[in-house]
């Protein structure tokens, strides 16, 4: 991992928006909630011990603007000290910009990625079979379902046609049926931030990045801001069986979120988030380059619908939650042999970017090679209590 700089982090409009991060403070042996401003990085933990607490405010952006905080340094120096290689453990570094929120993810929310999920299922996790199956699935279903509203009469008619042709799939059920797929991505506090290594299960041989918008939602179901995310996916594990979803999704360092949380304010709103274009770039040590994108405007279910299907009288999240919205990126470009599509290799550098949210940059390693996750909820509570912040 090369040393990161501010240009690898900030949105195109710099610090004009309301930007929130978390920084590890060596002197406190724990994290700080910080406001990233034009004149530096400011510790606001004395007012907001957690990002979750900040997101519970009626107007988080306004509440943060009213707090001066304690300046802990220049953003450039903190960013440069973030990557694990060559990090000075006596100086601050960036963390993922969330803490107590539950990590949730919506799947199969874009038509093109839905088709790839069907292909994974039929290929039983074997990339060599994918191309032939892709042609057959496209013949049966078509390749443009972008105008099909999930749960509509038209969608239910298509469902019956596919059942009659023995072509129905569990992925089509959540892709065009009335109920969205929403699952728990990873344990609370386990996310890695920008500049960190992201993890792949060491037994996986067919996997891919998933560039996504991550919404931050309060315990009341109010969407308060967003960040970028990589919902790292193992196509071989999930393709073998949907019951292997936990092994396909929840591995050490397999949930990347960052670089910062941008709270909704006059400079960035939910409507802006709905129009977000997210780019993906993968650069391999072997010279391989993959480019892709995901446009939130093409999503099959509105972000508010996905949030409403996540929280309510049936499901509650007292500390709020974050929600990956899914991706339209389809990893079909061949890397090694023709017809076998894309899979990661060690030391791939993955950059997920959006003009309004900056860049989330991670190096891919196997999960057992990534930094162990040892600082959980108990450790956070103990640390904050020792610092007399709670």
From TrEMBL:
MF term (GO), any: hydrolase activity
Keyword annotations for this protein, in alphabetical order, are: Hydrolase, Metal-binding
Provide the leader sequence positions. Answer: none
What family is this?
A: Belongs to the FAH family.
Protein name per UniProt: Fumarylacetoacetate hydrolase family protein
Q: Which organism is it from?
A: Bradyrhizobium barranii
């Amino acid at each position: 991992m090369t040393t990161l700089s501010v240009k690898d982090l900030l949105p195109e409009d710099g610090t004009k928006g309301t930007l929130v991060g978390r920084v590890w403070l060596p002197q406190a042996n724990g994290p700080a909630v910080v406001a990233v401003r034009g004149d530096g990085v400011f510790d606001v933990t004395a007012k907001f011990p957690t990002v979750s607490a900040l997101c519970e405010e009626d107007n988080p952006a306004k509440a943060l603007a009213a707090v001066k905080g304690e300046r802990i340094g220049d953003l450039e120096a903190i960013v440069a000290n973030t990557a694990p290689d060559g990090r000075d453990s006596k100086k601050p570094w960036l963390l993922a910009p969330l803490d107590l929120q539950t990590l949730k993810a919506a799947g199969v929310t874009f038509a093109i990625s839905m088709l790839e999920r069907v292909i994974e299922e039929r290929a039983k996790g074997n990339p060599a079979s994918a191309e032939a199956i892709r042609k057959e699935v496209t013949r049966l279903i078509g390749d443009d379902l972008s105008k099909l509203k999930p749960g509509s009469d038209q969608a239910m008619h298509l469902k019956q046609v596919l059942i009659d042709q023995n072509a129905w799939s569990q992925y089509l059920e959540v892709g065009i049926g009335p109920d969205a797929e929403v699952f728990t991505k990873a344990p609370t506090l386990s996310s890695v931030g920008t500049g960190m290594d992201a993890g792949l299960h060491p037994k996986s041989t067919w996997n891919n990045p998933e560039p996504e918008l991550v919404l931050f939602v309060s315990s009341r179901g109010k969407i308060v801001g967003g960040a970028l995310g990589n919902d790292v996916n193992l196509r071989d594990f999930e393709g073998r069986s949907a019951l292997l979803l936990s092994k396909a999704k929840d591995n050490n360092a397999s949930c990347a979120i960052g670089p910062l949380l941008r709270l909704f304010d006059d400079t960035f709103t939910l409507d802006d988030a709905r129009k977000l274009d997210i780019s993906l770039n993968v650069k391999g040590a072997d010279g391989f380059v993959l480019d892709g994108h995901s446009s939130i405007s093409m999503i099959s279910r509105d972000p508010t619908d996905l949030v409403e299907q996540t929280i309510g009288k049936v499901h509650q999240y007292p500390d709020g939650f974050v929600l990956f919205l899914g991706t339209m990126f389809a990893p079909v470009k061949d890397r090694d042999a023709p017809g076998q599509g894309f899979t990661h290799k060690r030391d791939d550098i993955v950059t997920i970017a959006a003009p309004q949210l900056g860049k989330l940059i991670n190096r891919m390693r196997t999960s057992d090679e990534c930094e162990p996750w040892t600082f959980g909820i108990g450790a956070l509570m103990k640390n904050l209590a020792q610092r007399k912040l709670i």
